[in-house]
Design a protein that fits this description.
Blueprint: H1 2-18, E1 25-32, H2 35-42, H3 45-50, E2 54-61, H4 63-75, E3 83-87, H5 90-96, H6 117-122, E4 124-125, E5 128-129, E6 132-137, E7 139-144, H7 145-150, H8 161-171, E8 179-182, H9 192-202, H10 219-235, H11 245-253, E9 257-263, H12 267-270, E10 282-286, E11 300-305, H13 313-323, H14 326-336, H15 353-358, H16 362-371, H17 395-411, H18 416-433
Parallel strand pairs: 1-2, 1-3, 8-9
Antiparallel strand pairs: 3-11, 4-5, 6-11, 7-9, 7-10
Helix pairs in contact: 17-18
Amino acid sequence: MKVLVKGLLGAAALACFSLPAYADTTLTIATVNNGDMIRMQKLTDDFTKANPDIKLNWVTLEENVLRQKVTTDIATKAGQFDVLTIGTYEVPIWAKKGWLDPLDKLGADYDVDDLLPAIRAGLSSDGKLYAAPFYGESSFVMYRTDLMKKAGLTMPEKPTWDFIKQAADKMTDKAGEVYGICLRGKAGWGENMAFLTATANSFGARWFDEKWQPQFNSPEWKKTLDFYVALMKADGPPGASSNGFNENLALFNSGKCGMWIDATVAAGFVTDPSQSKVSNDVGFALAPDNGLGKRGNWLWSWALAVPAGSQKVDAAEKFIGWATSKHYTDLVAAKDGWARVPPGTRTSLYKNPEYLKAAPWAQMTLDSINSADPLHPTVQPVPYTGVQFVAIPEFQGIATDVGQDFSAALAGTMTVDEALAKAQASTESAMKQAGYIK
């Protein structure tokens, strides 16, 4: 009997070794709590049914927290995440550091050449794609057509900042909780500093001169911050220094903003009747300028990447290929309509008559993306690239500090002059420490 049992166990063991191993892979995905990413999580049954051996674990975070956690994780090689949501700022810098795997297994039908050139270029290094765009964006003006009409004004397609100020003054009704304008005030290099850096470009300001000397003591930055703080104090909502993209989206959708200048991706949300009380009264215009040759619009993409050294590259690329594919676009269109698909990534989307019909803001989004010039972002020459950021590794830390100063100026706990002086001092110190200046 013992011999029989031993023989059976031996046979079972041999059978185990002869069978192929089907080990489930769990991907931990770090992403931002924006509406398009929330929608993606609801649609992942489409992916997991086709890939039953891959399980998805989501870590969904507020924008500033996501950036901090993902940066710490990859810099320390902690390996907490298998798929990262990062953007146009991080990708080229991290690729050069060897922190990301190139994406060369996205699938035979992925069609990488269909990606918009401006978006693809921002997610590439040395000709290789290191992150696939989930959506791409610039920024523009979203406004209430009913309130504009009531104010007796007509929004130009290409407004100036002076017109924005005039319209905000006329639309503001604080007693009725309607504020002429909502703008980012929450501190963060990708929150208030994204908006203010793009705005500063249109005022003729720049972060650094050609010798990397900080420029917050310039008249152009003074004019930028004076205008912003005065506009928001006169016509912005209370507590504006705590408002980022999501907070302003909620304010606009609840009918409390006359105008909102922010990411073009928001167009699909402010016109969605299931989310927005004012969906039938929304118009769009290009980001404002001051006649100096630069508009206050940015260029960004939230994209998915794989950290270098990952043990789950094949599964991660399979997921990224799905999430940023034409198939995914068709899936969203079938479930929620063409107006809700992730914008700003593929040329084919902007040639699709169904999308163009459903999204009247589509051409303006494309024009805004194409007009942003990362190689020449400012009126005066600069030694850096990047529109609403400076493409150097130190920028993230520097702009986080400056963002806190500018948010304090908006909150009234610091004057504009104090905020600019503090920004100048901290940026000079950081640039000396990093070896850019002596």
